[in-house]
Write a structure and sequence with these properties.
8-stranded mixed beta sheet; 3-stranded mixed beta sheet; 14 strands; 23 helices
């Protein structure tokens, strides 16, 4: 079987969109599955539908992992992307050969080729997703390193080379689109770049150029990317008629919010291409919407659903009680606390149900349960407090979700490192920070009220004493008693009643 290439596609009479030649106007730090199914997909569609006419040169942000780079270059930047899931209740499986990528560089083995991109006068955009740990300032990085080990260090070196080449020409800075999953990702990246510029004693003119000629955009990204379909790859390639070593898969839903000036709408014609990308002066309400509705629905529902006998998200959506509990939490207790227009919130919530129903993703509840303490604090607690502030009473489902969390975490066995709970006759691992597991081990024998009071009063968990929220301790303890005596499913029923 022939490898994927432009020639192979021509021989197979491929009738989809392909862009063979275009200037490299985008530099991307990250060659992994997520960016290829998200940023590079959006650019590919923008090339086709809005004449963006741009190629993306990929850069490996860390050393090693040369196999992916080799595959990308062998396949002339081409790869097949499958977007799969539910849309308006209908099963969707879309295939597209992505042709927006030109090549992939390793700055550790070919630093000169990487830095040469800074001298490309047509380069205008930089995208990145270097994981949450990527945007960090490491003072051990030196300007003379080839390259600096941290991503912000590499970017500073690259920006300085750009400044040396084009610093006197207006408009030759970059629009930098940070996709890392941290708060204010663009602003944090800009802070790190400025720290390196000062640490390395680079001239004041460069610092001024960073500020005046570059736009560091904080962004919110939203798409589940499942990556290379290992179990299906051979059959998929047989059907495609070519060998593709970097097939990518993701859910059909995608949404990108970019915080930046109005002028970006002309430079990045996402709207003209009909893409779900929003350029706004404030991305935070959209981040709040995602965290509170999508992530909050997960966190408020999954621990109870697991204790009720379910194992994957999709199956939870087939159960009227569990789905009803989740919907009541979203529509009656979370959405009323948010600030975006109600219809936007309702549309997003409807899409969440479609996403949870995705027939192509087996999203395990135990995987979602990881670090539920910090997740409940970030995703559910703000909605619970907002509801109390607005209505002067406790939200039934969100309070119950705290009881599910307590029941899930009240383990039966601790081996010094791992805490285990029990469902029926099966043990399950409780995954969280060590000090949290040790705390729950110390309170393993507590009754419902004792455990509830100890956990809610632990300001180290929540950043405050939750026993000060009127009636919360008593309500959660009562809910926990129901779980212990009748089960989590019964508590969900009671919430719906």
């Amino acid at each position: 079987m022939k490898k994927l290439s432009y020639q192979t596609l021509e021989e197979l009479n491929y009738d989809g969109y392909l862009l063979k030649d275009a200037p490299e106007r985008v530099l991307q730090f990250g060659e992994g599955n997520f960016l290829r199914a998200f940023v590079d997909y959006f650019i590919d569609v923008m090339n086709e539908k809005a004449g963006f006419h741009s190629k993306v040169v990929l850069v490996q942000p860390i050393g090693g992992g040369d196999k992916i780079r080799e595959f990308i270059n062998e396949q002339e930047g081409l790869y097949t992307l499958f977007l799969r899931g539910n849309e308006n209740g209908q099963k969707v499986n879309e295939k597209r050969v992505i042709s927006s990528v030109s090549r992939c560089l390793n700055p550790y083995s070919d630093y000169d080729a990487y830095m040469a991109c800074a001298k490309n006068p047509q380069l205008r955009f930089i995208a990145c997703n270097t994981t949450e740990a990527g945007i960090q300032y490491d003072p051990s990085c030196q300007f003379s390193d080839t390259p600096a080990s941290s991503y912000p260090g590499k970017l500073t070196q690259f920006l300085y080379a750009r400044y040396q080449e084009f610093g006197q020409i207006p408009g030759k800075g970059f629009v930098i689109l940070s996709c890392e999953l941290i708060d204010d990702n663009g602003k944090e990246l800009e802070k790190c770049v400025n720290q390196y510029a000062r640490q390395w004693n680079l001239e004041e003119g460069f610092l001024q150029w960073i500020k005046e000629e570059n736009i560091f955009c904080s962004t919110l990204v939203d798409r589940i990317v499942t990556g290379y379909p290992r179990n299906e790859a051979a059959a998929i390639c047989e059907e495609l008629g070519y060998e593709d070593n970097i097939i990518d898969t993701g859910e059909v839903f995608g949404f990108w919010v970019i915080e930046g000036p109005e002028s970006l709408k002309k430079e990045l014609p996402f709207a003209e291409a009909g893409l779900p990308v929003l350029i706004t002066d404030d991305h935070k309400p959209y981040k709040q919407r995602k965290v509170r509705i999508l992530n909050g629905a997960h966190t408020s529902m999954v621990l109870g659903a697991y204790l009720a006998g379910q194992d994957i998200v999709r199956d939870c959506m087939k159960d009227d009680v569990i789905r009803g509990f989740m919907n009541q939490a979203i529509y009656e207790e979370i959405i009323p606390t948010l600030t975006l227009p109600r219809q936007e919130l309702m549309d997003f919530a409807k899409a969440v149900t479609d996403r949870f129903n995705n027939p192509f993703i087996d999203h395990a509840l135990l995987a979602i349960s990881l670090n539920s303490t910090s997740k409940w604090k970030a995703r559910v607690l703000p909605s619970l407090k907002g509801y109390v502030e607005k209505y002067g009473k406790l939200p039934k489902c969100l309070a119950a979700s705290l009881a599910f969390y307590l029941a899930f975490y009240q383990g039966v066995r601790f081996d010094g490192k791992e805490l285990f709970g029990i469902r029926g006759e099966e043990e399950y691992p409780i995954k969280d920070d060590q000090d949290i597991l040790e705390f729950y081990n110390e309170h393993r024998e507590d009754d419902a009220l004792g455990l509830t009071n100890a956990v809610l009063a632990n300001s180290g968990f929540w950043g405050e004493d939750l026993t000060e929220i009127a009636g919360l301790c008593e309500e959660v303890a009562a809910d926990l008693t129901v779980i212990k005596e009748k089960g989590a499913y019964e508590l969900m029923k009671q919430c719906l009643a």
